[in-house]
Amino acid sequence: MQYLYNLDSLVDRYDGFLFDAYGVLYDGKGLIEPCVAAWQKLRDQGKPTWILTNGSSRTIDETVTMYRRLGLQLTPSDIINSASLLLGYYTERGLIGNRTAVLGTKSSAAYVEEAGGIVVNPLETDDYSVVIMANQTDYPLLESLEAVLSAVVTRVEGGLPIQLVLTNPDLIYPHQTRRFGITAGSFALLLEAALVARLGPNAPKFEKLGKPFPRIFNDAIKRAGSKNLLMVGDQLETDIRGAQNSGLDSILVGTGMIRVDLWKPTPDDPVPTYVLPEWR
To answer: Is position 70 within any domain?
Structure first.
């Protein structure tokens, strides 16, 4: 690992740069100015940059609007998010036309509709064959989790198919009013544990589309037309491990989830190519 304090020495080394959103460009309250300045400097030097995010609560247009309001000028093509992968996923898995319970926002449901799923409310029906866990807000959380748990158990015990999909594998995130919040990945783990308690070790598990899993990184590589990319991230288990598993270099920045100045790597930790404790 090499310690750095800016990206200046890396500009000519990579064909493009992938920036995480929460904890890198955005802290839940506003922009993280040193990182945004680094993003803009790369762009001024002609380097492609993209936001690579597990965020599934806003449409891409809504995300662009949010960043523009904060002062970062983006276009929809600058954002690669995990929920947008549902479009290809539904086609590949033959899920178009399937009734789908969505745990998330109205915008989360819009991704499912765009992909060809028929969105249903799990509090109103148990007639669905797909569950999308996208976000932890904008619906009655406990009641919905219990309804989905019961519906999945009933389908499995009745020999009916069920597909569980997690678009946001993050466990925690920087919160607007508190230091940290719990997000969709944590509730997916909760559901999986409950399903195992009833159905045993062969209980269905969530298929995960976002970081650190390959599908989102493959989409970024395809978008860039190159594998010579640098992932700029703040989370070891999503940003850094995902880049490492996909053969990409990464830099761990100290603006988000990991106190880089206190971090002592363990043998199980993914290894970033670079570490940036603070921007200078």
So the answer is: no
With 80 as the cut, is the pLDDT of residue 210 above it? yes
Is 67 domain-assigned? no
Domain that residue 164 falls in:
94-208
86 lies in a domain?
no
Domain assignment present for residue 199? The answer is yes
Residues 117 and 18 in one domain: no
**How many domains are there within the chain?**
2
CATH of the domain at 30: 3.40.50.1000
pLDDT band at 260, cuts 50/70/90?
Answer: confident
**pLDDT per residue over 125-157, tens digit each?**
999 999 999 999 999 999 999 999 999 999 999
Its pTM stands at: 0.92
Domain stops at, among 169, 185, 208: 208
The secondary structure of the chain, three-state, reads CEECCCCHHHCCCCCEEEECCECCCECCCCECHHHHHHHHHHHHCCCCEEEEECCCCCCHHHHHHHHHHHCCCCCHHHEEEHHHHHHHHHHHCCCCCCEEEEECCHHHHHHHHHHCCEEECCCCCCCCCEEEECCCCCCCHHHHHHHHHHHHHHHHHCCCCCEEEECCCCCEEECCCCCEEECHHHHHHHHHHHHHHHHCCCCCCCEECCCCCHHHHHHHHHHHCCCCEEEEECCHHHHHHHHHHCCCEEEEECCCCCCCCCCCCCCCCCCCCEEECCCC
Same domain, 50 and 121: no
Q: Give the model confidence (pLDDT) of 159-174 as tens digits.
A: 999 999 999 999 988 7
Q: Count how many Cα atoms sit within 13 Å of the Cα of residue 170 in the half-sphere of its side chain.
A: 30
